[in-house]
Amino acid sequence: MTVAERRARFRELHAREGIFVMPNAWDEGSARLLAWSGFEAVATTSAGFAWTLGRNDQNVTLDELVTHVERLAAATDLPLSVDSERLFAPDPEGVKESVRRLAAAGAAGCSIEDWDPASGRIDAVGVAAERVNAAAAAAHEDDPMVLTARAENHLHGVDDLDDTVARLVAYAEAGADAVYAPGLTDPADIRAVVTAVGVPVNVLALPDAPPVTELEALGVRRVSTGSLLASAAYGALLAGARELRTRGSSEYGRAGLPPDVRTAAF
Whole-prediction pTM value? Predict the structure, then answer.
């Protein structure tokens, strides 16, 4: 499947009725396993990718991400949406260039956040909307990508639903194709976002969030997993290492990847 066909497919997933789940892969192997598992699209995870490099989130360069996207886009035929943080640029022109580089790497979609780790603050809504508009302009060139605009309030201790909704509405009006406020778990809050924004809404599948069937009933179009799958995989590694180090046993190996799945997925 060509990149253009994947982008068309990704747009179709957002336009059709019903919900779809887009889990986040952190390397080629996890992407292939998720594709084999039957999902219709996959995403990257900024934190999960950073962990593969032995770093914390927000410590990957644009060059490294572009190479990562090239590798994951080549690993499966599924549309690939990129967790592209702040798009690695302080100004709208730089945002456009970052989007174009991700498009050239094979992305079917990308995202932009309003959290600025350099200042430790969330951008003023006008500044953030201007950046969303620049990202949308670049994302919609040629074969359009799906641009997701993120309001980071609830990951950074700002539990102000009215502000979150106002931001997501502004980002949709600035050209975002989908919006996302990671951290929302209350069904009433999620419904308020869905009702207000007028574009597809993504929800993060946190342990305390409603199940996918309930999210669909609330009007959510897309569900992603963020860094949760990567964290679970690394957590299993850590538990196995602790067992081996403290008890000298290898019971952890019983929960490993079955040989038939390895043969089929890889």
Answer: 0.97
